[in-house]
Please model this.
Amino acid sequence: MIRRTVLRKRSSLRTFSLFPATRILFPATSIIRSNQSITQKLNLKCYSTETGVSDDQKSEKDEQSKNVGEDQNASQEDPITKELEAKKREIIDLKDRYLRSIADFRNLQERTKRDVQAARDFAIQKFAKDLIESVDNLDRALSMVPQENLTNPDNSEDRKQLISLYEGLKMTEEVLMNTLKKNGLERFDPSAEGAKFDPNEHEATFMVPMQGKEDNTVFNTQQKGFKLHGRILRAAKVGVVKNS
Model:
């Protein structure tokens, strides 16, 4: 019996000692669970922070790669742009040369045309100079006939012959001068035109004072002048008024 009693007491002590242990385990379990939840939260926070950092790094890498791509595109476009600008300058230079060539060619055409026309116009210059003497002689012959003999009412045979000769010479002169005029050769008489003395067209052989006339006025023509297509072929020899 004593043994049973002792066993019962031991078993009761064991039972009593188990319940407090169980009671002590409950707080530890809750603490562990709370620690696990905190750890999970910390892990989540750390994960979220790491994820944020990786996103920033990713965006920075994307930006860097974008910048690198733009730099590469710019480096690729830069030679093309330079080549394009060079081609544009070359086109402008070629266009300028083309326009200058056209202008030079047109100027050459105009000069050639003028030279050909001048050669054609003045081809008879030597012949015209040689012919002037014959025209002068014909003019002198007509001027040698006195005007009173032409207007004299005498009906003699000599006068009729003189008038016929004069009219024939006069007609010959007119036909000759018209022919020369068609070829650009013209005769001019400064005194008949009342012209002012022009050293480019006249040659003053003498000067005299004369009342009622202005200075440098041509009043007498000793020898008529000739022009070939507007160019002086021979200057007229004249007398000029000089009052002062």
Observations:
- Residues 13-32, 41-53 have pLDDT under 50 and may be disordered.
- The longest strand covers residues 202-208.
- The first helix runs from residue 2 to 121.
